[in-house]
Amino acid sequence: MKQLTKYNRVAGYFNKLYDMLNNDFFNGEMERPVITIQSTPKAYGHFSLYEAWTVNGQGVPEINIGAGTLTRPIEQVIATLIHEMTHQYNFINGIQDCSRGATYHNKMFKIAAEAHGLIVERSEKYGWCITSCSDELFQWILDNELEDIQLNRNDLDAEIISGGTRKRTATGTRASHSIRYHCPKCNAIVRATRVVNVICGDCLEQMVA
User: Fold this and answer.
1) Does position 73 have pLDDT exceeding 50, yes or no?
2) Separation CA 136–CA 37 (nearest Å)
3) Are 15 and 8 in contact (CB under 8 A)?
């Protein structure tokens, strides 16, 4: 796969990721919304609570991924995407998962998120909003050899917290629990959830963390 350094390629990558996650973690139950990449001050992303776009005369909702957060490890980016997909899933099924102007994540969000591949932790201010990959989801990322994104917007407001603005729900995250190894000869990359000794099968070289 070519490096993810072009905007159009990154946008297409998110469409592909959505379809894969929808199929494998949501039983293909949802229709893909418009996925945008825009700055989201103090948030990693949002799902629109209204039909933000019109396509062929029909309203379509939106999932946005913060443009200034793209170069986080791919497992964190995917945790954000599933976080917003969970909001979409709950919305479709009539489940109210947020209150306080759509910023406080209640236990209904936690239940749905944990049923779709996430680990959920509680923020004192924003509720059950801090999400990260479960072991199952992390293994899925490894199995599909998903790559980090190399494109990132240089937002002036670099501080990211859990929270959002009206019509948005926000995503928190915890630190990545993976270690990235690369082959010093061919630059092949693998990830592991703990310290391991890894040999590149092509070059027979010790991979470096």
Assistant:
1) yes
2) 27
3) no
User: For the chain, how many residues are written?
Assistant: 209
Does 186 have pLDDT greater than 50? yes
Neighbours of 5 (CB within 10 A): 10
Neighbours of 130 (CB within 10 A): 20
The contacts of residue 112 (CB under 8 Å, 6+ apart) are: 86, 89, 90, 95, 97
pLDDT confidence band for 195 (50 / 70 / 90): low
- Choose among 11, 67, 69: nearest CA to 39: 67
Which residue in 65, 46, 69 sits closest to 155, CA to CA?
69
pLDDT in tens, 125-160: 999 999 999 999 999 999 999 999 998 998 754 444
The overall longest dimension of the chain from CA atoms, in Å, is: 56
Beta bridge partners of 105: 98, 127
> Quick one: which of 58, 81, 86, 206 has its CA closest to 146?
81
Query: Residues near 16 by Cβ (< 8 Å), separated by ≥ 6?
Result: none
Contact 162, 130 (CB under 8 A): yes
Tokens of 34: 């418009």
The SS3 of residue 93 is coil
In the block, residue with structure tokens 């917007």: 153
